[in-house]
Amino acid sequence: MRFPRPSRFGLLIALVATLVLLCCGGSVSAILIGGLGAEDDTNAFSTLGCGQGGPIDENGKMPSISNYGADQIRNAAIIINTGADLKLPPRAWVIAVATAMQESTLHNYGNLGARNDHDSLGLFQQRPSAGWGTPKQVQDPVYASRKFYEKLQTVKNWDKLSLTKAAQKVQRSAYPNAYAKHEALATMIVNELADGAAHAIGNSTALMCAAGGQIAASGYGIPLKSTVGSGFRTPQRPTHQGVDLIVSRYTPIAAVASGVVSVVKCDEDRRGRRSCDVDGYPGKGGCGWMVEIVHANDVMTRYCHMVQKPFVTVGQQVAAGDIIGRVGTSGNSSGPHLHFEVHRNNDRTSRGAIDPIRYMREQGAPLGGDE
Predict the structure, then answer these.
(1) In angstroms, how far is CA 336 from the centroid of its own chain?
(2) Terminal CA-to-CA distance of the chain, rounded, Å?
(3) Which of 59, 70, 194, 209 is most deeply packed, by most CB within 10 A?
(4) CA dist 132 to 99, 109, 137, 211, Å?
């Protein structure tokens, strides 16, 4: 199935919800979950759909997105249309677009003389001498895209791998970790061209929005099904750098995306004590048992107040949906919940913190249930 061109830059509708629920410090607060505006470059063009309709009009007027001009975005549309024609799910489109961004910046390059890497050509810099096809064939964007997808399908569990691992198994690049940095923008491009298709279930061609427990084509899923409690930097709690997800003790906590575990510890309380195997209380200080994971594009997620030592270790690679621990109430906490944070640039301080509600919704993995 192919997709229509969306309206230009699809304006995002502000979403407002007010809840009165338990929060980390034990107080009760009203939460405003607000605007999904376009302040963030990474998601400025995202739509809220999950993919609909017929083909992207490759010959129609194309938007410029970030530093990519209309001709480059047209090549992205061809990649997406080819994947849809092959009845591959949107996760494959995101991987393919990100790969072409790394290999050619979405340009259909011919022979560049001394600047060529051997005989690499086209959107995916495929080498005729390596069996990808003739020089004319690999410079045909449809042919090149089809060959990439065919090779991707031979990779075992490609849809469960991190984007950079899946792409590397196809491309065999000298820079195997380079693909990850394009995942966020590739997701944005797929969303803009295909009506939010990166919000759909990643390994399904049904184009249904990913629900709780499912992984979206963006590579993200929710950490757990929950009620949303105290929000990000509310007027009542302006220094609250995350969101509280209210669930029962021992509920499993999942990694929201693939990445590498960077921190596992019992966070000290205000007295410098590491006492995490007991229930905490408001004012105690500290995150209790906690985990931090660094994902593609140096996005870091933090998970706090676990009931026991987490199940993962520093340096461990995890996939979206892997269970990393269980909900508790250790540290600065008044009751069982997961305190969840998202940080840009792997900046662990408050300077790097961004609103998890907005960020996760833009990835197609909204917090707070199955909406």
Answers:
(1) 26
(2) 24
(3) 194
(4) 16, 15, 8, 38
Q: Give pLDDT tens digits for 179-213.
A: 999 999 999 999 999 999 999 999 999 899 998 77
- Cross-strand bridge partners of residue 300: 294, 343
Annotate 44-67 with b (16+ C-beta within 10 A) or e (fewer): bbbbbbbbeeeebbbeeebbebee
User: Tell me, what's the pLDDT at 177?
Assistant: 82
Separation between Cα atoms, residue 343 and residue 303, nearest integer Å: 12
Residues 70 and 66: their CA atoms lie apart, in Å, by 11
Cβ atoms of 369 and 33 within 8 Å: the answer is no
Structural contact between residues 107 and 115, judged by C-beta atoms closer than 8 angstroms: no
Query: How long is the chain?
Result: 371
Q: Residue range 339-367: average pLDDT?
A: 96
- H/E/C letters for each residue in 54-123? CCCCCCCCCCCECCECHHHHHHHHHHHHHHHHCCCCHHHHHHHHHHHHHHHCCCCCCCCHHHCCCCCECC
**Which structural domains are found in the chain, ordered by start?**
54-194 (1.10.530), 227-362 (2.70.70.10)
Closest CA to 96 of 132, 124, 58: 124
Residue 59 or residue 117, greater confidence: 59
Under a CB-based contact definition with an 8 Å cutoff, are residues 125 and 109 in contact?
yes
DSSP track, 241-291:
-SEEEE--TT-EEE-SSSEEEEEEEE---TTS----SS---TTS-S-SEEE
Residue 115 pLDDT: 61
Q: Give the Cβ contact number of residue 139 at 10 Å.
A: 19
Q: Look at residue 36 and tell me whether its pLDDT is greater than 60.
A: no
Strand partners, 337: 328
Secondary structure letter of residue 297 according to DSSP: G
Q: Is 353 helix (H, G, I), strand (E, B) or coil?
A: strand
**Which tokens belong to 57?**
């009009």
Token representation of residue 137: 């064939």
The band of 266, judged by pLDDT with boundaries at 50, 70 and 90, is: very high
